[in-house]
Amino acid sequence: MTDTPRRLVAEALGTALLVATVVGSGIMADALSADDAVSLLGNTIPTGAILIVLITILGPVSGAHFNPAVTLVFAARRDLAPGLALAYVAAQIAGGIAGSLLAHAMFELPMLQISTRARTDAGQWIAEVVATFGLLLTILGGLRHRADAVPWLVGLYISAAYWFTASTSFANPAVAIARGLSDTFAGIRPADVPAFVLAEIAGALLAAALGGWLFVPDRNAPR
């Protein structure tokens, strides 16, 4: 069993690199194209790619949650102790904020920012429920049937969800909080973050409930 400090560093580092990729690729894409569709594509591909990398290399250390919604589900399933789950969430939020600051520093922007990008309406909230529900169902189904494929499944799912959800699939409370501190292409107004977080938690819990029934181990399978 990997010790707790390594787990927490892995969660903080992974979330930091994820957010740095989301924000940084958004800045780069927005600078290179005036077309929002092209910019979104430039934001999508790096995000899906980095998820595959981070889950592959850090999954054996911490489980590679990088997401309080994922941690909440694993705690609810009793796969993670409550105290360790809270520590994971704190590490993820801190790492996400650090990722935003790092992206700003790389592009020589003011490091401390507050987003002014509005993302608020019923469609966006429904989209976040759907995005997070799908993400957690992907993880739970992958762990049940093809654990070795989870990095690719998650990277591909998020890449798709960028395009089929009205919110462009945040699906992660730590990422939402961190993006509130970036007044860039990837940003979200801090006032809009709480509704996103609540929608993400709702989607995660719905996926946990359905996944617990849908992906029950086959007791008749040969051993």
Tell me the fraction of residues in β-strands, as a range. Answer: under 5%
Described by the principal axes of the CA atoms, the overall outline is globular
- Residues in helices, as a percent range: over 70%
Task: Kindly report the average pLDDT value.
Answer: 95
Secondary-structure element pattern, one letter each: HHHHHHHH
CATH topology: Glycerol uptake facilitator protein
Low-confidence stretches: none
Rg (CA only): 17 Å
Summing up helix and strand content along with how strands pair, one would put the structural category as: mainly alpha
Pfam families: MIP
Transmembrane segments: 12-29, 49-74, 86-105, 125-143, 150-175, 195-216
GO molecular function, one term: channel activity
Family: Belongs to the MIP/aquaporin (TC 1.A.8) family.
General description of the model:
With 223 residues, the protein is mainly α. The chain has a single domain, classed as Glycerol uptake facilitator protein. The protein has helices at 4-32, 36-62, 68-76, 82-106, 122-145, 150-164, 173-179, 193-214.
Summary of the model, kept short:
With 223 residues, this protein is mainly alpha-helical. It has helices at residues 4-32, 36-62, 68-76, 82-106, 122-145, 150-164, 173-179, 193-214.
Throw out a few tags for this protein:
223 residues, mainly alpha, transport, transmembrane helix, Aquaporin_transptr, Glycerol uptake facilitator-like aquaporin, Glycerol uptake facilitator protein
